[in-house]
Amino acid sequence: MKYRQKTRSASVGAIAHLGIAALVVLGGGGVALKLNGGSKLEEAKQVPKPLHDVTTTAGTQTLVLAGGCFWGVQGAFQHVVGVVSATAGYAGGSAATATYEMTETGQTGHAEAVEVVFNPKQVGYGQLLQIFFSVVHDPTQVDQQGPDVGKQYRSAIFPLNDEQAEVASDYITQLGKEGAFSRPIATSIELGKTFYRAEAYHQDYAYNNPDQPYVYIYEQPKIDALKRLFPGQYRERPVLVADRAG
């Protein structure tokens, strides 16, 4: 997450430091980022729904996933109707290494992850996966999202049980067969991993820092794409960690 300390007042310099060769404005207001080195993020687009979903239960259900910087992943899911909470944290490693400083080394097994608690009567596990693959991140990048490189930025789903793991695995296979992306999906499924909540200063970061260059360039487009591609599932006022704490 280097370069995030920049302020938007130096936006031209920030774009250069972020390694962006070009910002390409797409139809409908979307933005594609062409990065130095020739790589290109997949354009946000609505991919097909999963062919099957987990069993709907009374009460809430929980989904844990990772797709690059947790600021943007959290920020996007906070705008989804039916999401009760979205919390930034770490998953994939041990409790002893579940800190920002240690996770950023890329040596802990952790990914920056988000725990999404949702009401399955309003939004299903499968639809949340559809949003994840459509607008939240580029699932074809290996150990990277945009300028952030390392295993801590990998695309991953951390199922809480066998049924979630099966639905996620089948969905990845489905998207591959249907050619939803121009490159193979790199998302891993990591069953049996514990989620650890991140430090307080990471919570609601995208909401609290909309003019920060990293947020403005990389994270806000995810929320914009959610609104554009899933208007029926988008809510203007996000559900914030701070609201629940208060």
TrEMBL record:
Q: Which residues form the Peptide methionine sulphoxide reductase MsrA domain?
A: 63-214
What Pfam families does UniProt report for this protein, alphabetically?
PMSR
This protein's source sits in the domain of life called Bacteria
What reaction does this enzyme carry out catalytically? [thioredoxin]-disulfide + L-methionine + H2O = L-methionine (S)-S-oxide + [thioredoxin]-dithiol; L-methionyl-[protein] + [thioredoxin]-disulfide + H2O = L-methionyl-(S)-S-oxide-[protein] + [thioredoxin]-dithiol
Active site as annotated = C69
Membrane spanning stretches? 12-33
Q: Which UniProt keywords apply?
A: Membrane, Oxidoreductase, Transmembrane, Transmembrane helix
Query: A GO molecular function for this record?
Result: L-methionine:thioredoxin-disulfide S-oxidoreductase activity
The EC number of this protein is 1.8.4.11
Which family is this protein grouped under? Belongs to the MsrA Met sulfoxide reductase family.
Role played: Has an important function as a repair enzyme for proteins that have been inactivated by oxidation. Catalyzes the reversible oxidation-reduction of methionine sulfoxide in proteins to methionine.
The protein here is known as Peptide methionine sulfoxide reductase MsrA
